[in-house]
Amino acid sequence: MNMVIVLMGVSGSGKTTVGRLLSRELGWKYYVGDDFHPPANVEKMRSGVPLDDADRKPWLETLRDLIRSCLEQGDSAVFACSALKKSYREFLRINERVVFIYLKGDYEIIRQRLTGRLGHFMNPDLLDSQFAALEEPETVMCIDVSLSPGEIVNLIKSRLQL
Asked: What's the pTM value of the predicted model, to 2 decimals?
């Protein structure tokens, strides 16, 4: 049975790094949710303006369509997607084959990562808005981002029996 794993968390939590490694080890398709933002959203984030629900709606619809397509075609995939709010996760969770994994880190660890990151449009000044918008999930697998990417991938594979 195919599956879609959605690595969720605030910007800087390691979704992309872990997602690339996990998808490579599993031989699954890999998608970065940020790649599907419309240009206006990217420009807002680059300028330090937080996105609101209206900004995120078309982005989430695109991701949901892509998740649905993967499942219908029998493809397993890994998505890196912030999915900060419960309503976003519910919208993306098409069925039980969509599994969310929360990469959780405290504010200071994430801030250090963001300030050291080059070449990404996410303005580090938006971290406060990310944590403010975050509705921590209670019923999904949660992994501490202070672990190495390899340790996180091994935990995911072990817990999901992959």
From this structure: 0.91
